[in-house]
C-alpha cells in the first residue's frame, strides 16, 4: 500500500520557520503474514530536495508487535545539520506498549 500527501504550512517565526510546502510519500509491503517493510520520504518543494527518509520493518500478530525504524533527517530548522534516529517499538496488545528512540548524531534518547 502507499500514500502521497501534500502539505503547505504558514510561517512560524517563533520556531524560525518560513512558509513552506512539501510532499510525503510512504509505502509498505507485506512480506509474510506477520512481517511488513516500510519506506517513506519527505520532499521539500521550496528547497528542491529530500528533507527526510525512513525505512523500517515491523512484526505484528494477535498477541504482540514490534517495529524498528531508521529515519535520516537531512535538514533541521535549528542547526541544518543532518541527523539519524533509530526507533524501536514493542507492543503487548493486551497490556500496552513501550517506545525507545535514539538520536545517533547527538547521543540523546527518549523513552
Task: Provide structural commentary.
Helices cover 0% and strands 64% of the residues. It has 111 residues and is mainly β. An 8-stranded antiparallel beta sheet has the order 1-2-3-4-5-6-7-8, with no helix packed on it.
* Range of helix content: under 10%
Biggest β-sheet, characterized?
8 strands, antiparallel
Radius of gyration: 16 Å
Percent range for β-strand residues:
over 45%
Which class of secondary structure composition applies to the elements? mainly beta
Which regions contain 5 or more consecutive residues with pLDDT less than 50?
107-111
Order of secondary-structure elements: EEEEEEEE
Distance between the termini: 29 Å
What is the number of helical segments per DSSP (H or I, 4+ residues)? 0
User: How does the overall form come out from the CA principal axes?
Assistant: elongated
Oligomer: single chain
Give a topology summary:
Layout: E1 2-9, E2 20-30, E3 35-44, E4 49-60, E5 64-73, E6 83-92, E7 96-103, E8 109-110
Antiparallel strand pairs: 1-2, 2-3, 3-4, 4-5, 5-6, 6-7, 7-8
Amino acid at each position: 500500500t502507499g500514500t502521497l500527501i501534500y502539505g503547505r504550512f504558514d510561517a512560524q517565526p517563533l520556531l524560525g520557520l518560513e512558509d513552506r510546502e512539501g510532499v510525503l510519500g510512504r509505502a509498505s509491503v507485506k512480506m509474510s503474514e506477520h512481517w511488513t517493510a516500510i519506506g517513506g520520504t519527505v520532499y521539500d518543494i521550496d528547497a528542491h530536495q529530500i528533507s527526510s527518509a525512513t525505512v523500517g520493518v515491523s512484526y505484528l500478530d494477535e498477541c504482540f508487535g514490534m517495529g524498528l525504524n531508521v529515519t535520516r533527517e537531512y535538514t533541521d530548522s535549528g542547526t541544518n545539520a543532518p541527523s539519524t534516529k533509530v526507533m524501536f517499538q514493542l507492543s503487548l496488545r493486551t497490556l500496552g506498549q513501550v517506545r525507545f528512540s535514539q538520536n545517533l548524531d547527538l547521543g540523546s534518547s527518549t523513552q
